Amino acid sequence: MTPPTIRLLSLGAGIQSSTCLLLAAHGRIPRFDAAVFSDTGWEPQAVYRHLDRLTGIAQRAGIPLVRVAGGDIRADALDPEHRFASMPLFCLGPHGERGMARRQCTNEYKIKPIKREVRRRLGYPHPIRVPNGVYAEVAIGISLDEIGRARDSDVRYMRHVFPLLDLKWRREDCVAYLAEHGMGDTPKSSCIGCPFHDDSFWADLKARSPAEWADAVAFDTAIRHGSARANADGQPLRGRYYLHAQRVPLDQVILRPRNRPSPDDTPGCGPFTCPHPADTFDAGAATTGPGVA
After folding, report:
1. Lowest-pLDDT range, 83-87, 172-176, 281-285?
2. Which terminus of the chain faces fewer neighbouring Cβ atoms within 10 Å, N or C?
3. How far apart are CA 90 and CA 196, in angstroms?
């Protein structure tokens, strides 16, 4: 096999990918040519502060940390002039049918921007064809306890590798390594208004970050009738949409957080490691079409 043209890290800025960057900075694994963070524009401030910290660590190790983006997911969702890549919002159909909208946001706001950056660094931006044998090795932060989420790339010009699997590290090994180096407060990376948040996350956000909680509540209200673009185009209403599985306004949800050490001890939504299925919906629910597109 020909060697990779470049070696990159897909940096979600959560526990596992932060560990990969730190391991490379310390010489425990081969150094990356760059670490790439795909910014949806709506991460919690704790994630952006952590990302700034990682940037300094990476720079001192000679690893550029690059931020790429496919837009601002929150602003785009509410912009009637913008195509909306749907979020997996919870839905109540016209007759009370319960479903979810298709999830397109991870691909649109996380994966596509990374692929564009990979092609740019290889010297073959879209639509130029990447020649056979030219590829980037892209490291993904998946630990041994999440091995079922390790998948090959769906394009020839990227080949996924998994440094934590090679080390046989579990998530708790990553947490311990980060804590050992003063990064025990590494947050979970995900959008503020991700519908996959559990009650522990929402309760923590409400208690510790009231401004971000208010931001999520305002967004939840704004998306009640689906896509702003569809509504502006006069397409028919097909349901009501919510951020929470109870399918009531977020500020009316009775939160029942689980007893666990931290709301950050469950997987976040990394570009290639989101633990949730790409398309989640119940047959018969008003989940696709004009109200969601």
Report:
1. 281-285
2. N
3. 10
